[in-house]
Design brief:
The chain is α/β, with parallel strands linked by helices. The protein is built from eleven helices and eleven strands. Helix 1 runs parallel beside helix 9. Bound molecules: adenosine-5'-triphosphate. Pathway: Carbohydrate degradation; glycolysis; D-glyceraldehyde 3-phosphate and glycerone phosphate from D-glucose: step 3/4. It catalyses: beta-D-fructose 6-phosphate + ATP = beta-D-fructose 1,6-bisphosphate + ADP + H(+).
């Protein structure tokens, strides 16, 4: 391997820049040429590929987002489009690709390896929903942002004796919600991993009111229900002012926290080391603070994200 490419794909996550920097600097230290691809798989298809040098990644370690740009490009599912992407890399003699993204991006990488192109995938998503890793790049930064928002909501909810419902990102994974709820001292938690019943939730909230609670914060993962409707329902049933706050893309932005910068730098370097050792189809993870790698096909089929039921149990005892 002499020339490699790097791209970021799917939802952006703070720390992606630090990961790109890790890839670029490690590649150059090992006398490899390194190419950046704009806008994920879309840029690969559209031939937006350019050479990077060590200064291309100066002053990015502390920046949120991804300077390469990211995109969702569903036409990458079509074989012929992936063939064009591979042709674009091959005409520059690029023969390996490092993909930084979530599980959707992993599938794109797996498809490329099935077509004979070497790919290493790095977990970059705030959702922490990627298999084979305890943490993904961006998760801890998003968590800090969310908890700061919950703290602010607490000030105003408590002043007005209000019930606040906070919708948190995570897709089908409740990690962000659960951790943020514990750190933010939320009274009620609704997660995709646990059956949701709005009547049960109401019952719990009423119990809290009867105990003498003056205000309450409900942390809920996105896509479970319409939180504005839920707020109306709870307000009607409890006669307490209830407001829904959808944190939205605020959760994706901001300078990466120290943990994400270190994780991203280590994973970036590790991905290049794996290529140098001759690996062709791996995804990277961190398990008990150690970097690990799996065959991407095996990981997608066999590894599941563990639900932290013990965390939920603890959280419930704290309310
Ligand atoms: P996040 O978790 O932050 O949303 P993600 O990587 O899971 O990130 P997706 O939009 O699911 O985000 O996937 C990113 C991209 O990966 C897609 O836009 C598409 O280009 C590619 N991809 C996803 N699934 C496939 C597939 N089955 N075949 C080929 N490419 C795919």
């Amino acid at each position: 391997i002499k020339k490699i490419g790097v791209l970021t794909s799917g939802g952006d996550a703070p720390g992606m820049n630090a990961a790109i920097r890790g890839v670029v600097r490690t590649a150059l230290s090992n006398d490899l040429e390194i190419f950046g691809i704009n806008d994920g798989y879309l840029g690969l298809f559209k031939d937006k590929i350019f050479k990077l040098n060590r200064f291309s990644v100066s002053d990015v370690i502390n920046k949120g987002g991804t300077f390469l740009g990211s995109a969702r490009f569903s036409p990458f599912k079509i074989y012929n489009n992936r063939q064009i992407a591979i042709k674009n890399m091959k005409k520059r003699d690029i023969n390996a690709l490092i993909v930084i993204g979530g599980d959707g991006s992993y599938i794109g990488a797996q498809k490329l390896t099935e077509m004979g192109f070497a790919c290493i995938s790095i977990p970059g998503t705030i959702d922490n929903d990627v298999v084979g890793t305890d943490y993904s790049i961006g998760y801890f930064t998003a968590l800090e942002t969310i908890v700061k928002c919950i703290d602010k909501l607490r000030d105003t909810s408590s002043s007005h004796q209000r019930i606040s419902i906070v919708e948190i990102m995570g897709r089908q994974c409740g990690d962000l919600t659960l951790a943020a709820a514990i750190a933010g001292g939320c009274e009620f938690i609704v997660l995709p991993e646990v059956n949701y019943d709005k009547k049960e939730l109401l019952k719990e909230i009423k119990k809290g009111i009867n105990k003498g609670k003056k205000h309450a914060i409900v942390a809920i993962t996105e896509y479970i229900c319409n939180v504005t409707e839920l707020a109306k329902y709870i307000e009607k049933e409890t006669q307490r002012e209830t407001r829904a706050t959808i944190l939205g893309h605020i959760q994706r932005g901001g300078s990466p926290v120290v943990y994400d910068r270190i994780l991203a730098s280590r994973m970036g370097a590790y991905s290049v080391e794996l290529l140098l050792k001759g690996y062709k189809s791996r995804c990277i993870g961190i398990k008990n603070e150690k970097l690990v790698h799996y065959d991407i096909k095996f990981a997608l089929k066999n590894l599941k994200k563990n639900f932290k039921s013990d965390w939920l149990k603890t959280a419930k005892t704290l309310f």
